[in-house]
Amino acid sequence: MALLKASLVALLAGAGTEDPKYPLGPLRTPPIADAATPFRLVDLQYAFSDDGNVLSSFQTRVRIGTSLFAGGEVIGDRRGLFVDTQRIELGLSEENGSYEIEGSFRAPWFVFGTRAFHEDGEWAVSGAGSVRFSNDVELLLSHSHDLDRSLFSPSPVDEFVRSGILPPLGPPSRELRGSSVGLLYQRENHLEALADARFSRVRTEAGFDFDVQRYRAAAKWNPERFEIDGELSYESASGRLSTEGLTSFLGIDAELGSHVLARASTLQSWEPGVLRFEEDYRFGATFFGRRHRFARRSEASGRILELQRRANALGYNERRVYDLEGLRHFRERLGLSPARLELKQALDELYHAQVRDRSVLQLGFELEVAEDSVIGVARRGYRVLLGVPWPLRLPFLRSEDSVEFLLAELTVRHDDYSSGIRAVSRELSVTAFLNREMSLAFRWQDPGITPEEIARERGLPSRFTVSFEYAMGR
Amino acid sequence: MGSDLGVDRREFLRLGLGGFAAGGFQSVASLPVPRLNGGINIQPVRRLDPDAGLTPPLIVPELVDAQMRALYELGYEYVRITLSFDRFGPDFMAAIPYVRAARALGMDVLGIIGQFTGYDLVQALADPATREEVLEAYLAIFDTDVLVASPAFSRPGRFAVQVLNEPTHFLGISPLAYVRDFLRPAYYHLKEDDPEITIVSAAAIGSAAGLLQTREMIEGGLELYCDRVAFNLYSTGFLEEVAEIAEKPVWITESGSRGTASHRDWMNSAFDRIRREVPTAERIFWFDLYDREPEGFRLIDLAPRLDGSVEVVPESAALLEWLRSRVEKPLGGIPPIPYRELVPDITLYFPTEEDVRIVDATSYGPSTWRF
To answer: Rounded to whole angstroms, how far apart are CA atoms A100 and B223?
Structure first.
């Protein structure tokens, strides 16, 4: 406990002199490749939420010595423990008598992971892995198998007459088994393409089975001032619920000048057999206090490419990733590797490049227009965000020195049901970033009253959540 | 609650005095209009004024009489009618004479446990404290023995129930929630009270969205909790999917086309296609006999006369002519038993003291309505 306390005090004090300045002062370079003596706190999250029922969750992770992370979590009734090394990840969790065991192994040219879930005396197991052909090409494989083959049949009416108790529902529809194969290609930083196919057998809640096949092609392309994200998939189901459908998604982010990012996306689903055609459109724009850089076109992206190739040459089998959490884990794994000291400078440089590339959101809005014909809902969603940077400035001013400090976000959704009822849901969140690694957040969610809740004469209560998060090296 | 026949309605219904009241049963040589024209939806109209008030008369007998007469003379075999919950108010009570008279005339009745507007019924069904009493009251009132209006009918019409209609479209209840929270409990309660009753699932809206909703309901176990699967079909575009999706027998609870000019063609060609391409389709109900929208789906209009009677105005002339020609052929020129001989006084099928007592015994009583 004393060590934990010492770690936090050191963090709050801001050891080191790395720019920029945060409300809690400058932040030191995270000791990502340094051994812990004997351990160092790297993650601490606590959340408290109340919607009439209080739920607390606590997650923590520490680095032990040179080559191990260990952690634990308590989220409501769920309790879990895990340990990670550069090559091996193991986890065990329990929730109300159900157990989940996870493990993975990362070899120089393949990764294999497995998960087993035990509930009501039955196991469901799944495995997923990848085979690396080069720095840029991976074969992706997965298989899952539910060993519970039982078929649900409802209790006879006689039993209900005898007991007066409504018999229980059957288990929800579930995948009995499924296999997928895919190919992932990453061309430097500006192009990523994926093609995969999945074949599965589904056991329905009604007790009959059907087979599903899905073929998908997806790509993300990042020319200079744009990021284009597209996906096309075809899915067919055989048997009584036979369907054939196409789904396409296209999203375009465009830099308008140096500080504004506009985004438009659309999702289209088409099922020719039943003339179903569904559309979802989103539009938005965000003003950044600092010059905007796409992650794949940023200074860090060059270092990611270089570091990934170097790591793979050392046999560590890493994929290029660009999001904050993915990059943090990428750096952490390499920081646990036997070559951590050799990679230390490159890891630190990547971190500093990420800091220099940071985005500072200050003003933004998004409009969402969608329809779900299965439940007969037309949706209009509105999202606005307002950020106040640190050092304190008005949200419409630019400053390359700024960091994220306060960020408020409001989302309002109108769901118009064909029955004439409008359910209005609202969500407000305010986050204070004390520095890059530490934040305090408040969230209030009002789910609105849906027609089903009117029918049941009980609406979901609004919920508020307060949370604290510390993530070293974020 | 008396009648000018010297017996009360309860006794009348128990004894089956319809034909007798008209001066004795008809000659055995007389036959009723043959029942061979399938099914149709009827509305339990209680008054013609658009905003039917709560002042007497709550149910205009001539309206019930006019519709029942049309059904009989057109040779319908079965009818579908909304038994609107209405907290057991006038709209609920108005369905009683329609159901009883139709059954007495040998027509099977599919009663929708539903409600024209509002959430009272689904709230009552969702709440275990009221679900049982509401469903029991439905069966106690509508699923009782009815005697035939004439010995020429081999049996009275059977009563079946449909649990809600187009729940996603009209109420915003998701397909899965419908199966789990409404159909499943209703199935157990209804079968407990009458193990022989036929329970028909709700049909989804008659469009592509409806087919998707039905797919979700089937996946959610709909067929575990009903005897017949219902579809509303206003297009023949999805017949292949309908034929594949359900294993249990199918009832097409609504089908029709807008515009009187298209009615006859729809009944000839679309109904034939449905029977041919959905072999499990047992029953098809035309939508509908009467509603308030002219030149739409309805076959007839109802016009009040100055003397208080109601005139049946043929609207879908070609289809009505075709239906009549079909019933005339088997009669071979012999006049059928006239409707008036079978139903001399429609008010004898009106709500009884016993019906009011059943309603009064629920938490929605006591009823102040008198009919």
So the answer is: 34
